[in-house]
Amino acid sequence: MFNSALNIFELDVSNQEKTKWILAKSQVFGGMGSWNDSPGYKAYKLGIKKEYEKVTEELFNQQFILQKKINGEKKISRRRSQLVESI
Asked: This protein's superkingdom (predicted)?
């Protein structure tokens, strides 16, 4: 999944179109076998539940920011938006 997402950067399309593809590839919340199913339990069993929750929150926040950028909304209300502010 990660390598196929990296291939998006090589596509001959606009940056906005690449952003849409990246957002689609990063939709891991919800559905059977999703991010919130077994990975959360596995993180708990490995003793890294706090790290899992932090990464989950950051991924969700970045998806939110990308969606707002795609929709043309200027105001970013989520924190830690530096990663995608330059898109």
From this structure: Bacteria
38 within some domain: no
Q: What are phi and psi of 48, to 5 degrees?
A: -120, 35
In a domain, 40, yes or no: no
Handedness of CA 53, 56, 58, 61 (dihedral sign): negative
75 lies in some domain: yes
Residue with tokens 């590839």: 25
Rounded Cα distance between 38 and 45, Å, is 10
pLDDT tens digits, one per residue of 52-81: 999 888 888 888 888 888 887 655 444 444
Give the span between the Cα atoms of 79 and 32, in whole angstroms: 29
Domain with 63, as residue range(s), is 49-86
Quickly tell me which residue has 């530096």 as its tokens: 82
Instruction: With beta carbons less than 8 A apart as the criterion, state whether 63 and 28 touch.
Output: no
Token pair for residue 70? 């795609």
